[in-house]
Write a structure and sequence with these properties.
- With 333 residues, the protein is α+β, with helices and mostly antiparallel strands.
- The chain has helices at residues 11-25, 71-80, 113-129, 140-153, 163-178, 215-226, 230-241, 247-274, 289-297, 306-322, and strands spanning 30-36, 44-50, 53-59, 87-91, 96-100, 184-186, 195-197, 202-204, 211-213.
- The strands form three sheets. The chain has a five-stranded antiparallel beta sheet, with helices on both faces. Strands 6-9 form a two-stranded antiparallel sheet. The chain has a two-stranded antiparallel ribbon with strand order 7-8.
- β1 and β2 form a beta hairpin.
- The mean pLDDT is 92.
């Protein structure tokens, strides 16, 4: 925690943050400001105390070629629908937003356990997809391919090591485009860090990837993270789509789940490459989710470390090729 208020911000962000809080709360005194950590975002996130309440101030990182230009439009729509916390201040040009802070509890404490959580998640994302449609950004298969092409250009892996993944990606993209359906509002990153439980209900945060998309992209990610049995999958999908999934939906869902695995592999490997973690890697072996969790619990792998994310990337690559269970991100990044 900062003892000097705004010195918790970088010099580049200090006055921007001060102006944002003044615009949001006027002359109300600003109390403790605490930097928040966790997740794979490049944004700088802070908890700010004003009066007797807490708020979240978020400043986006440097724009990248993959930056979604529509996140704030999507966030406003979600806020108006009661899906995202209330916005107190937003400056799209400065890429800064102040929202209500959700005093969240672990998702594992959701009353009724995993089946009730699966039901609630299905209902929540059904509401997301029923909102006014978020703006269009890019075909999901294309964004996955662009991110994976970036990984291959970094030299992180030796030549030829990822050839099988490239071949499978091209086949999946053809099938994905052939089965394209109506696009709907999508969060596109509904991982455990972005779904909060306040003791009564669920909230969605971090809308930097939100745009309209295939309705199964969010479903695929949520299933990979929260539904580790056929029973939970059935509960979640039925609550989401209002009917039991048929064979056509399940077939397309399998392809979309594979694409989402390659997307998250790309996210993890981009972090590895940016940190110069390694070059010309030839080893794609990966632990099982159970082995990975044990290594985290025993301290052999450190949450959020570049090496841990590199291993996660390899686990996602394995899921992409084989269809084995994708790793859970909760507590790992």
């Amino acid at each position: 925690m900062s003892k000097d208020g705004f010195d918790v911000f970088s010099i580049a962000h200090r006055e921007t943050a001060r102006s944002a809080l003044a615009a949001a709360f006027g002359s109300a005194p600003v109390g403790a400001i605490t930097a928040m950590t966790g997740g794979a975002t490049t944004a700088s996130v802070y908890r700010v105390e004003v009066g007797q309440r807490r708020y979240l101030l978020r400043i986006e990182g440097e724009p990248s070629p993959l930056r979604n230009p529509h996140q704030y439009v999507s966030m406003r729509i979600a806020t108006e629908a009661g899906i995202a916390p209330a916005i107190r201040y937003l400056d799209e040009a400065a890429r800064i937003v102040v929202i209500d802070f959700v005093e969240h509890q672990p998702l594992k404490t959701y009353p009724g356990g995993p089946p009730a959580l699966a039901q609630a998640l299905g209902e929540l994302f059904s509401r997301v997809q029923a909102t006014a449609v978020f703006p269009y950004y890019v075909n999901y298969g294309d964004i996955v391919a662009r991110l994976f092409a970036h990984v291959r250009r970094t030299g992180l892996f030796a030549a030829g090591v990822l050839d099988a993944h490239v071949e499978r990606l091209e086949l999946l993209r053809e099938a994905y485009d052939a089965g394209a359906s109506r696009l709907v509002s999508s969060h596109n990153d509904p991982t455990p860090n972005n779904i909060l439980f306040d003791g009564e209900r669920l909230w969605l945060i971090d809308w930097e990837s939100a745009c309209c998309n295939d309705p199964l992209v969010d479903a695929a990610i949520v299933l990979n993270q929260f539904a580790r049995s056929q029973e939970l999958e059935d509960v979640l999908l039925t609550a989401w789509f209002g009917r039991a999934p048929d064979e056509a939906l399940l077939s397309r869902l399998a392809s979309v789940r594979a694409l989402t695995c390659l997307f998250y592999a790309g996210v993890m490997f981009s972090a590895s490459a940016a940190a110069s973690w390694t070059k010309d890697d030839t080893d794609l072996s990966a632990p099982t989710p159970e082995q990975f969790r044990l290594a985290i619990d025993e301290g052999r792998l450190i949450r959020g470390a570049v090496g841990t994310r590199h291993i996660l990337g390899k686990m996602y690559l394995a899921s992409f090729l084989s269809g084995v269970a994708a790793p859970k991100l909760e507590g790992a990044v």
